[in-house]
Specification:
By secondary structure, the chain is of the alpha/beta class. The chain has 14 helices and 13 strands. The chain is 41% helix and 12% strand. Helix 5 packs across helix 6 and helix 5 crosses helix 10. Pfam families: Pyridoxal_deC.
């Protein structure tokens, strides 16, 4: 009998033909990648997709790949490019993509140990490895998430319950952080029902790191006012400048005042692998919870974050739920099930996209790449410091370099740098982003692609000089 659903099961010959077309496309993309623009400001912005609506009738793989190339892959930021120096770049390791392919074809459900013991063991093994990197105990709770936002939500929901922050006391329960903490933490507080908590933005030093003395003073003042200090959020690599808060000192203050101590190391956490990065992250192991994103520091494609929490029992109490139809899973308890430690029940087998490249490349390759990024940031800082007209106010602590051009006359500095970033982006050979620091419009070099090397930085510096000169000449004419 030839049921219509058989159409969803291509033959081996059909599978191989489509797979070959896809692999040809991928190899062509990777071959051309070094010469592709890092940014394309397309007027159409992918709108051509709408001319091929979702319909009953199929199209060929060649047509599909044509739409993918022109409407998806070409416009906007080429995220896989070594010239992507804006925001915090994601990775794009080829072996990681193969891991996703294998996970999708085999379609293992990695939420419950009973259903996929090997897959859950793999993910928990990866989490234990991460815990060892930051000095967490091997029995810490952990979860591989879609990114830092969900990882932060898991951590803060656990912190809420551990500190018994109920609805009655939320308006008096105080959170301490800095103005440079990532916005996903504000979102996580709101989603976790903590949006009415008072949030104290503690002052920062001249390198944009939290001042411990100011934190302690704020805690004492809040206690004196009858409020309830309960959560300290520190950063190990801020998005704006890559700053690392004084983790050890803050940990002592959190312990003294019995605050839950959360460290956002989504960007910076994996620099603990690098010889010169590890000392900079000293004290991270004092935290109660840490977020670190493999899709940043381990160059994995977008879609893989991680949370580590010391209090396994509380994490399970916050997130565990058992439905009657899941009763068969109760017999398998050798490994913690991811579904018991996060909001997710249905989940992708994310671990394979990290396990495969770690096994095929070896950890040493990642260690060397991370050390290179730290060295490149120092190199860029030194070069910019010596370029006429450029101002670099902060020595990079990790791999983000903040700078601006200060024109001699004829145009205000903020306006000039707004024109400069636009000119660099329209040029397209590299992509840089911007931020505001103390009212000053600043440009950012965020160096975290495994494909970014010294020649990329040299190219970015040449383009900056060229565009700055052009804008100055225009402003004088």
């Amino acid at each position: 009998m030839n049921f219509p659903s058989y159409l969803l099961e291509p033959t081996q010959q059909e599978r191989l033909a489509v797979q070959q077309a896809v692999e040809t496309y991928i190899q062509s993309f990777l071959t051309q990648l070094p010469t592709l623009p890092a940014f394309v400001d397309s007027p159409e912005k992918g709108a051509g997709l709408l001319e091929s609506p979702i319909e009953d009738t199929p199209i060929s793989i060649e047509q599909a790949l044509g739409l993918l190339q022109t409407q998806v892959d070409e416009p906007g930021i080429t995220s896989a490019s070594g010239g992507h120096l804006g925001y915090i770049p994601g990775g794009g390791l080829y072996y990681s993509a193969l891991g996703d392919y294998l996970a999708a074809v085999t379609n293992k459900y990695a939420g419950i140990f009973f259903s996929a013991p090997g897959a859950v063991r793999m993910e928990n093994m990866l989490l234990r490895w991460m815990a060892s990197l930051i000095g967490f105990p091997q029995d810490a709770a952990g979860n591989l998430t879609s990114g830092g936002s969900i990882a932060s939500l898991i951590a803060l929901a656990t912190a809420r319950d551990a500190k018994k922050i109920t609805s009655r006391i939320i308006p008096d329960a105080v959170v301490y952080t800095t103005a440079h903490a990532h916005h996903c933490l504000d979102k996580a507080l709101r989603i976790a029902g903590l949006g009415e908590c008072p949030v104290r933005h503690i002052s920062m030093d001249d390198r944009y790191r939290m001042v411990p003395e100011a934190l302690e003073q704020a805690i004492l003042e809040d206690k004196a006012a009858g409020l309830i200090p309960w959560l300290l959020i520190a950063s190990a690599g801020t998005t704006d400048v890559g700053a690392i808060d004084p983790l050890t000192h803050l940990g002592k203050i959190a312990q003294k005042h019995q605050l839950w101590y959360h460290v956002d190391a989504a960007y910076g956490g994996f620099f603990t692998l690098a010889p010169s990065g590890k000392p900079r992250l000293q004290g991270i192991g004092e935290a109660d919870s840490v977020v670190m994103d493999p899709h940043k520091g381990l160059f994995i494609p977008y879609g893989l974050g991680a949370v580590l929490i010391k209090n396994r029992k509380q994490t399970a109490e916050t997130h565990h739920y058992l439905a009657n139809y899941m009763q068969d899973a109760l017999s398998a308890t050798e490994e913690a099930s991811p579904a018991d430690l996060s909001p997710e029940l249905s989940k992708h087998f994310r671990g394979l996209r990290l396990w495969l490249p770690l096994k095929l490349h070896g950890v040493g390759a990642f260690r060397n790449a991370l050390e290179e990024k730290l060295n490149l940031a120092q190199y860029a800082y030194e070069q910019l410091t010596n370029l006429p007209g450029f101002e670099v106010p902060v020595v990079p602590e990790l791999s983000v370099v903040i700078f601006r051009y200060v024109p001699k006359a004829g145009i205000e500095a903020n306006e000039f740098n707004q024109k400069l970033i636009k000119a660099v982006q329209q040029d397209g050979r590299v992509f840089l982003s911007s931020t505001l620091l103390d009212g000053n419009f600043m440009l950012r070099l965020a160096i975290l692609s495994f494909r970014t090397h010294q020649d990329t930085i040299d190219l970015a510096l040449r383009i900056l000089q060229e565009k700055a000169t052009e804008i100055e000449q225009e402003s004088r004419s």
